[in-house]
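Re-run with default settings, no changes from the original entry. Doing this only to confirm the output is reproducible before filing.
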Amino acid sequence: MLNLTLVTGGARSGKSRLAEKITKEIGENIVYIATAIAFDDGMKDRIKKHRNSRPKEWTTIEKYRGFNTLKNNQDFLDADTIILDCMTIMISNLILESGYDFYKITMEEVDKLEEEIFNEIDSLLKIMEDYNKNFVVVTNEVGMGLVPSYKLGSIFRDIAGRGNQYLAKKATEVHLTVSGIPLKIK
């Protein structure tokens, strides 16, 4: 059985802090899967702050795809609890590395891209279930903001929104954070 806890909220809502708190409460041997890529100074600073905020005894694995290889990682095998921060960055990375021309992309190509991303999500969920891990996932709530005015933004919002719904349906618990205030919604 998949033991999934989903933590969602807007940007800077406190979701990572809440997810780390939940992870500490349910886990003893914890692995942190970081999905971000340090592509500019702003992201480098965010990554540094996230690293500094989590306990030093947590092992970090930097990965946003190819999760079936975790079965060859001793830190993963030894862990009882895995935290992934964050699903929307993972989805963004997968979209951007896809190679599609987002000015000319067809809806059939968007559907294919979404299917590939969902296959990656399913691979991640399967390995967590197969190895009986407590799994905490951080994701951004993308449905409460502005409607993107450009095609790539709309594609990202739609895929991430459907991904969040998919994860929430499979989750045993879902938490929403607003202005640093947590609310358990499932």
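The radius of gyration is 16 Å. Residues 107-130 form the longest helix (24 residues).
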